[in-house]
Specification:
Blueprint lengths: L3 H8 L3 H26 L1 H26 L4 H20 L7 E3 L2 E6 L4 E2 L1 H18 L8 H19 L4 H18 L3 H13 L1 H8 L2 H11 L10 H11 L12 H4 L11 H33 L4 H25 L17 H19 L7
Antiparallel strand pairs: 1-2, 2-3
Helix pairs in contact: 2-3, 2-13, 3-15, 4-5, 4-6, 5-6, 5-7, 5-14, 5-15, 6-7, 7-14, 11-13, 13-14, 14-15
Length: 374
């Protein structure tokens, strides 16, 4: 017979959050299969989906394992997770260790799997920030009170920027600001922090950004300036989404994918394929699912038994929200093009596994929202 504490944990399991996650993953899997079939044919698409199913299965396995490890252990291990992520971020920059692709060095080949340390660093940062901010006694009365959080975030950001990966570095900024606000930092301090960031942007433009990164920003402002070069991705994406109309062309009927006009349809521009095949209705349906997922994460956070659980849920919600907004925004021309994936939809082993682990820890917080007497 199952002990009482574990029966109570299972009763507190958030099946609604799990159902939303399953719906998003199912929709993503269907659109990915349609995309793969349009690009490679049925046989290759089936092989591709087998690999995707294995990663999804591993993600759900990790999620459930994390559910049943008391999250106080993650609080105690937070520093080690963070230091390990910094080590991996530094390791990927060593010549001969990191693998380069599309002008960036972001992966460490480990045989059957390419590890992307920047994805690992996302969850490590959220856990460590939640620990540090939850241990702060009293209000945040000065910038000095924010220095530990700023330093904790700046270290992985700097290493990621060297890869270079501007998009992921900006994810860390969003997570930091969201968690500082949730921790009680006054709005005037956050406004000053944002203002300081805006003030140093010219330095980034003239001294730190690569030429292709500058071109992406210029193309974002005027896609027609280079329609067959840097502007091609954005223009084809907008054509793809616009041609879907209200109800779409139907699954397996993406013209832009089959004619191979749309770059990176399995990863960066998977939302464009969804918009063409399922139309405005399908796109809105996905957005509703994401809204429910993020709302439920915040709902769990507000019912956490401690500040760490609340802050971790906020950090996870900000992480997913920022990635959804930037990925969808870049496909419709309201955000610059970056390599930020669409959570649970884009093909990508590392991002999917890390997001699943984050959801597992959110479920963990919800399962332990009441103190359990042993």
């Amino acid at each position: 017979m199952m002990p009482m504490p574990y029966r109570r944990l299972i009763r507190n399991f958030d099946y609604f959050l799990l159902a939303i996650l399953l719906a998003i993953c199912a929709l993503g899997t269907i659109v990915l299969y349609s995309t793969a079939q349009g690009l490679d044919g049925t046989a290759e698409a089936l092989h591709f989906m087998q690999r995707q199913a294995i990663i999804l299965g591993a993600g759900f396995f990790l999620m459930f394992v994390i559910c049943f490890i008391d999250y106080i252990n993650f609080v105690n291990w937070a520093r080690y997770f963070y230091l390990a992520s910094l080590f991996l971020l530094a390791l990927v920059l060593i010549p001969g260790v990191g693998q380069s692709e599309y002008g960036a060095t972001r992966w460490i080949p480990i045989g059957f799997f390419n590890l992307q340390p920047s994805e690992v660093a996302k969850i490590a940062l959220i856990i460590f920030l939640a620990k540090v901010l939850s241990e702060k006694e009293g209000p945040f009365d000065s910038f000095k009170d924010m220095l530990p959080a700023l330093a904790i975030t700046a270290a992985p950001m700097a290493l990621i920027f060297l890869q270079p990966d501007l998009g992921t570095a900006l994810v860390f900024v969003a997570v930091l600001l969201g968690m500082l606000y949730a921790a009680g930092v006054a709005g005037r301090y956050l406004a000053a922090l944002i203002g300081a960031g805006v003030a140093v942007m010219p330095l980034f433009w003239f001294f730190l950004l690569e030429d292709y990164q500058k071109m992406r920003l210029m193309v974002f402002l005027n896609p027609d300036m280079d329609p067959t070069g840097s502007g091609w991705q954005l223009l084809q994406s907008m054509i793809c989404i616009g041609s879907g109309g209200l109800l779409g062309k139907g699954l397996f009927n993406s013209t832009q994918v089959r004619l191979q006009f749309l770059p990176f349809p399995k990863t960066d521009f998977i939302f464009s394929v969804l918009g063409e095949e399922l139309g405005f209705a399908g796109a809105v349906g996905l957005l509703v699912l994401f809204f429910l997922l993020i709302y439920r994460i915040l709902w769990i956070g507000t019912r956490s038994k401690d500040k760490f659980g609340f802050l971790f849920c906020v950090g996870t919600a900000v992480l997913l929200t920022f990635q959804v907004l930037v990925n969808i925004g870049m496909t419709i021309g309201v955000m610059p093009i970056t390599g930020i994936p669409l959570p649970f939809i884009s093909y990508g082993n590392n991002a999917l596994l890390v997001n699943m682990m984050a959801i597992g820890l959110v479920l963990n917080v919800g399962m332990r929202r009441h103190k359990i007497q042993f």
